[in-house]
Amino acid sequence: MSSRRGSCVGVCRSSLAMFRLILLALSILTTAASSHPHPLDPLSPAELTAVRAAVLASPLISDRPLTFHYVGLDEPDKTDVLSYAEARSSSSRAALPRHAFVITRAGGQSHELRVDITNATAPTVLSHAIHHGAGFPTLTLDEQFEAATLPPRHAPFVESVRRRGLDLDDVLCAVFPVGWFGDAANTNSQKKGQQRRVVKVMCFMAGETPNFYARPIEGVTLVVDLDRMAIVDYKDRVVYPVPKAEGTDYRAGKAGASYTRHATVPDVVVQPEGNGFHIDGHFVSWANWEFHVGFDMRAGMVISLASIHDAETGARRRVLYRGFLSEIFVPYMDPTEEWYYRTFVDEGEYGLGLWAFPLQPGVDCPANAAYLDGYYAGQDGKPVQNKNMICVFERYAGDVAWRHTEASFPDKLITEVRPEVSLVARMVVSCGNYDYILDWEFKTSGSIKVTVSLTGLLEMKGTDYTHADQIRQDAHGTLLAENTLGLYHDHYITYHVDLDVDGTNNSFVKNVITTRRNTNTPGSGGADTPRRSYWTVSREVAETEADARVDVNAVPADLLIVNPNKKTRMGNEVGYRVVPGALTAASVLDDDDYPQIVASYSKKQVWVTPYMRDEKWAPGLYADQGTGNDGLAAWSGRNRGIRNEDIVLWYTVGLHHIPCQEDFPVMPTVSGGFELRPANFFERNSLLKTRPPRFGQPPFLNCSCGSHSG
Ligand SMILES: *[C@@H]1O[C@H](CO)[C@@H](O)[C@H](O)[C@H]1NC(C)=O
Ligand SMILES: *[C@@H]1O[C@H](CO)[C@@H](O)[C@H](O)[C@H]1NC(C)=O
Ligand SMILES: *[C@@H]1O[C@H](CO)[C@@H](O)[C@H](O)[C@H]1NC(C)=O
Ligand SMILES: [Cu+2]
């Protein structure tokens, strides 16, 4: 194997990494490690333990068992966090109180608690309330695994398996939230209008394949009451053949003998001066950026306090207060009994942090990545470690940040090129069958690019069909293999982006592209020329939330978050542009369809709301069987003022997924996202202030680049 440092015997790409550091300005060192946590640091294992002790000792909840469904940082007020952040020397930084927000289940009720853990050896419960509204908190991992073990011990299920000639030992079951279909539709309710915390359990055949999702025992549905941990309903409605295991395995060496030529992956990244970034606790500094990487058991990775150093003025300028993934809504498009309810709000139901598994060094993240661990509360409240949950790495992928060749001078050619190097913070969620790779990428240009890549396994439906020609009526999907349908569905990935562009008060501006007729009348903006039309910009500043619900596919417009109180020397308002990337689908379901009511925000990609501490989760705090009545669309419905206020941008990445055979047995990544680009934020291209690599010397002269030497 090649050595880790010095010589470059990997592929060319790895040798290119060598000059990464050289081109980057030296990292701005953060203040010395402080003894107290940063106010936005996620709860530490000691703090989680303290929360648990306080909740279990509290006389406010006497019912047992008591299960923990959410424990997270109840962050201090924004003004306090900002004052803390602005006090740049550790001596003037007084620790802020540490509070946790907790949701537990006990006695058939959801309890909300706030716990003071400032002194972790003497935690105190500050408040307690019982949630009486619709919906339930995130499912714990333990209860899902427990519910999944019930079917093989249920006599009618054993009979269904036997009748299909299947081997009970190969059965594997998984839990599916039931969604919300109106209060009357909850046939399991004891009293009308009262929801029961139930899930559906579907079973599959694993056997010789780990891809059990490809082998459903279609037609069999069990309903489990989670509070009683008992099967309360059972249906065996239709029988379809279980698809065969052959061809479903995605593991290396299991896909048959022949391979195409492989692409090489650098297993060595040479950075003679070390990483270009610096991590102090949860604070990352790199090139001109500085930000905090946190973690939440529901949202997963949380980026806070991102600020950029302006080389022109020497000032550090605020860009993003907080950014995180708020919800992933995945409705399936088959209205039949076994599928109609599959209208996942993955994040609220499953918790992204709970389903983030250790990243594979060198593959999930490149060889030069650093890793952060996460901790969450298990069902019993005890801290659980999520090792290598987030990675941070510098990315150089051979792209150009800017360039120009000037060929107009008679005897010289001027060429200036700068490589595009960026810093990525990444987390991967494997939410049951699907995997989401979630990136926040910071560029020296001042841009922040948010990318979600979808991969993993489809949810598949068993069918009689073995050839597409047999399909006579709507199959609600694509035939992927014999007896296997990949069903139509959507993915709506909604981000909460609290931009604070150069300050807290911002406005949302739509620069709408409008076509004008050239009237040939001087003074009207026209001119006496043969030109008949042109476009110009109508600037609309959103006054209220209603003005800020945007379908990005409907109107050609530049969307901006500006600071109306700050102007460039040229007199333009400083701002950031919201640039939609790939995957801009919006929901086409009817407005009165239940999943659409829950996630009604999915009809527009862009919403802007005034900042409110508790407005975090797009479908509402209680997403399992939630009605959406305390979610993004409901908040926006108040139509509050958003001009020159502290505002939050909500951006939804959307995909109508029509499965194709290449998505089987495992799906190649599909990526989408959006970019936040400075727009009149800097006085000019800030990349001119990025030091060029070795002042013109080719940076990779010392490499012996073999194409297949790894
Ligand atoms: C934390 O609480 C313990 C137990 O009550 C007490 O002994 C200790 O002095 C407290 N620490 C601080 C810093 O207040
Ligand atoms: C920011 O908004 C708040 C709330 O509307 C207002 O009180 C304050 O004056 C604004 N600040 C600036 C600088 O406009
Ligand atoms: C690269 O090679 C040149 C010429 O052989 C040598 O002078 C230089 O020291 C080398 N640089 C490094 C970093 O090894
Ligand atoms: Cu999909």
TrEMBL record:
Domain Copper amine oxidase catalytic, residue spans: 269-686
Cofactor entry: Cu cation
Record-level Gene Ontology MF annotations: copper ion binding; primary methylamine oxidase activity; quinone binding
Comment on bound cofactor: Contains 1 topaquinone per subunit.
Chain positions with 2',4',5'-topaquinone modification: 434
PTM note: Topaquinone (TPQ) is generated by copper-dependent autoxidation of a specific tyrosyl residue.
Pfam families associated with the record: Cu_amine_oxid, Cu_amine_oxidN2, Cu_amine_oxidN3
Occurrences of domain Copper amine oxidase N2-terminal (ranges): 38-120
Signal peptide annotation: 1-35
Keyword ATP-binding (UniProt): no
Enzyme class: oxidoreductase
Record-stated family: Belongs to the copper/topaquinone oxidase family.
Name of this protein: Amine oxidase
Organism per entry: Lolium multiflorum
